[in-house]
């Protein structure tokens, strides 16, 4: 049986795979604590259910416009105007089945085979696979030696005649780093000077803690509007991962192409879910703030507990709900006779011995690290950290 070259090269999403494994072990009766997939544990806001129920009662169960309902696209424009002072028109917005396909559709609209897209490493798993699925090339700019903060000169050096886009994610999955104004200005200059696209994934923009501030690049440099594709959605800020609503905002001509692509791929995202998204964007601002404050407490809790542990180090995250510690000091040590040769073995032994699920950093192009999502309750964080500490304390120097 023939499989395409394209599909033979694909790796399943490591974040979703860890989560699936944790769920499978739980179903077998194991008391697993998962710091795997990044998804809020809260219920969606009440407005999601109210609007979804109204939509069902009124029979809004037909196709909507393929790029999303006009009311929702208008609401998204209003959100960008209110939050960032940036003016968009509904014909620049394409609503999809989550933010993930928005990124793929955006990449498909600008990447030809052999084109390079610049990513910061550590980077989110799906960017890598999506670029490769389109026969594009991933060009990595490493940030592991600078506390995950990108260095402008390195980005400049990564640009060449094949570069099509720089893809940035702030706050970052998996590091929680929030990009600062000067760096964004520097990157904007590079984007404009080299005639590139900027794909700006700000799906965690509402989850910012302490002194950190989220900056939208188009608000900062209006000239970027004609070459920036914004990615956002309701999954993270409104705890709506299962409803599958995300969106892209692009210059009108590109948005039309993205919309055409979607019209052949999925048509519109679920009509009921679109109404739910409209409901929360209209009415659930207070829920967003409440959940953000809780995430901040959880960040403080997990960072405090992690900082007391041997053999791991990490910069404190300013946003999203991930911590990305280095476990390089654990490599070469042994656990009950088994040598930890890399981050994958670390994760496997931790899951087998203490039933704690974390994602190997190699999936994010940062071997020697692990990602913990702290979008779970304080009780689970405390118990999970007790187990992790116990695991680390059992590590022995191997001869
Ligand atoms: N971008 C980043 C950086 C993410 O972490 C995620 C999480 N899944 C997405 C996009 C996709 O979000 P969605 O669940 O809306 O597809
Ligand atoms: N984005 C989340 C994560 O990185 C959810 C899983 C996924 O979509 O990959 O864990």
What does this 3D model show about the protein?
By secondary structure, the chain is α/β, with parallel strands linked by helices. The protein folds into two domains: 5-43 and 287-391, Aspartate Aminotransferase, domain 1, CATH 3.90.1150.10; 62-283, 3-Layer(aba) Sandwich (Aspartate Aminotransferase, domain 2). Helices cover 42% and strands 14% of the residues. The chain contains 14 helices and 15 strands. The strands form four sheets. It has a seven-stranded mixed β-sheet with strand order 2-8-7-6-5-3-4, with helices on both faces. Strands 9-14-13 form a three-stranded antiparallel β-sheet. Helix 9 links the parallel strand 6 and strand 7. Helix 4 (70-84) packs parallel to helix 11. The longest helix is centred in the C-terminal third of the chain and has 22 residues, at 285-306. It is globular and about 65 Å long. The chain starts with a helix and ends with a strand. The model has no long low-confidence stretch (mean pLDDT 97). It binds 4'-deoxy-4'-aminopyridoxal-5'-phosphate and glutamic acid (GLU).
């Amino acid at each position: 049986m023939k499989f395409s070259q394209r599909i033979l090269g694909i790796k399943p999403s490591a974040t979703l795979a860890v989560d699936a494994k944790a769920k499978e072990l739980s179903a077998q009766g194991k008391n697993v604590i998962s710091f795997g997939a990044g998804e809020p544990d809260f219920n969606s806001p009440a407005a999601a259910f109210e609007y979804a129920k109204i939509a069902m009662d009124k029979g809004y169960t037909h196709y909507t416009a393929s790029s999303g309902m006009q009311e929702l696209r208008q609401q998204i424009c209003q959100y960008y105007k209110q939050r960032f002072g940036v003016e968009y028109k509904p014909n620049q917005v394409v609503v999809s089945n989550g933010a993930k396909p928005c990124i793929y559709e955006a990449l498909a609209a600008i990447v030809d085979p052999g084109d390079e897209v610049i990513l910061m490493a550590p980077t989110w798993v799906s960017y890598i696979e999506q670029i490769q699925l389109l026969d594009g090339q991933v060009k990595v700019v490493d940030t592991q030696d600078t506390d995950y903060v990108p260095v402008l000169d390195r980005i400049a050096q990564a640009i060449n005649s094949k570069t099509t886009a720089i893809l940035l994610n702030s706050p970052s999955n998996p590091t929680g780093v929030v990009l600062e104004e000067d760096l964004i200005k520097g990157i904007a200059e590079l984007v404009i000077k080299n005639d590139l696209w900027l794909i700006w994934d700000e799906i965690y923009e509402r989850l910012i803690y302490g002194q950190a501030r989220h900056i939208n690049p188009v608000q900062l440099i209006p000239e970027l509007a004609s070459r920036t594709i914004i990615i956002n959605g309701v999954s993270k800020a409104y705890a709506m991962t299962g409803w599958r609503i995300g969106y892209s905002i692009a210059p009108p001509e590109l948005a039309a192409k993205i919309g055409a692509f979607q019209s052949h791929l999925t048509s519109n995202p679920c009509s009921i879910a679109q109404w739910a998204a409209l409901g929360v964007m209209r009415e659930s601002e207070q829920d967003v703030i409440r959940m953000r404050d809780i995430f901040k407490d959880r960040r403080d809790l997990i960072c405090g507990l992690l900082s007391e542990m041997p053999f791991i180090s990490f910069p404190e995250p300013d946003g999203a709900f991930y911590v990305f510690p280095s476990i390089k000091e654990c490599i070469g040590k042994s656990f009950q006779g088994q040598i930890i040769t890399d981050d994958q073995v670390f994760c496997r032994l931790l899951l087998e011995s203490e039933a704690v699920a974390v994602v190997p950093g190699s999936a994010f192009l940062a071997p020697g690290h692990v990602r913990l999502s702290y979008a779970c309750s304080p009780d689970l964080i405390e118990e999970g950290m007790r187990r992790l500490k116990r695991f680390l304390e059992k590590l022995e120097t191997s001869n």
